[in-house]
Amino acid sequence: MLLRTRITVSFVLLMVAVMGFVVAAEQLDYDELRAYVISRSLHSEMHRLKADIANGAAPVLPNGSQLYNAQTAPQALRAYAPGYYSVGRPDVWHLLVFDLDGQRYYLRQDAERYQYLEHVIDGYALLVILLCILCAFWIGRLTSARVIAPITRLADAVERKETPFPFQDARDEIGVLARAFAQHSDEAEQFLQRERCFVGDASHELRTPLAIIAGAAETIVHQLPADSPLQASGERILRTTLEMQRQLTCLLLLSRDPQRLAREDVRLRPLIEDCMGRCTPWLAQKPVALHLDAPQDPRLHTNAELARSVVWNLLRNACQYTDEGEIRITVQYTTLIIADTGPGLPPSVDPHQFQRFQPSLRESGEGLGLSIVQRIVEHLGWQMAVESSASGCRFTLDMPGTA
What we know:
This protein is about 55% helix and about 15% strand. The protein has nine helices and eleven strands. The two termini are about 60 Å apart.
């Protein structure tokens, strides 16, 4: 059955059960039930009294009961023929008229004796209501379990990445959902496969040309005279090629599962000092002081290349866009802080969510660098906070694993 059909049937069954209880309750006339119980009680009392009268013994009457004969009966009772009678308000009482040996007797009982019947009847009504609720609850639980079971089974299969997904041959809504999940999973798998192929091809096709360019540039730089006007261009080519190699390595590491990254104890201070040394071209002829405040041997259990890329990108941006003042790198326990006195982030860049290719103040490279930093921070399981104003930027990295 379709899912909506199952739900409809469950509600129909629930209504049938409720109406069954209602009909059963309506068949019981509480007044007739009360009269029947009291009548049976009076008849039982009558048989006992007849036996006492026949034996010549004085009848023993319970509290609230009176027995009259034809001579002692009040005038109001003499009008009643043999049988059971119930008199209503203002004075509620019950009467049983019977004959014995040609003599008429009147057994009158007050209503207080039968007050317990009201509690019994109220309890019965409450029992019927509780049975209706329990029945509805049972039918609802049973039906919901049958309806939800395929969805739960499908969700478990999706979570555990079981293939093929169950219920793909079903003709109800569960089947439609299962086939949609299967199609989406196939598309995602194809996309991941294409991405893996691209990463593998890029790694193979780009590493070798970059290594050749770096080797040739290094050779040219060493062969040029020290006063050659091409010396600066050669060093820039070499520096940019090495930077491309590092960025390629970083991007390839970002394409891997974070759980499978190679991690080691990295000495943080030498890593930062190496990045500071690479920033010299951006600080040339600028009144900018570069300060490092860190313990001598702080260690970080992480991937060395990705950690280096984070520090390098943040430090490079700070050096590139700070025209005067200072850039301070501070390491405090598990926290790394890089603060500068530059112009701050441009208004188009959100400090909480860096996007690729955001326009910067000077050129389009800043947005890409910060985007890479954010991806690496998330990949390593770190936390990054950014404070930006017209007087500078402050990047705070919380790095679990620092010792």
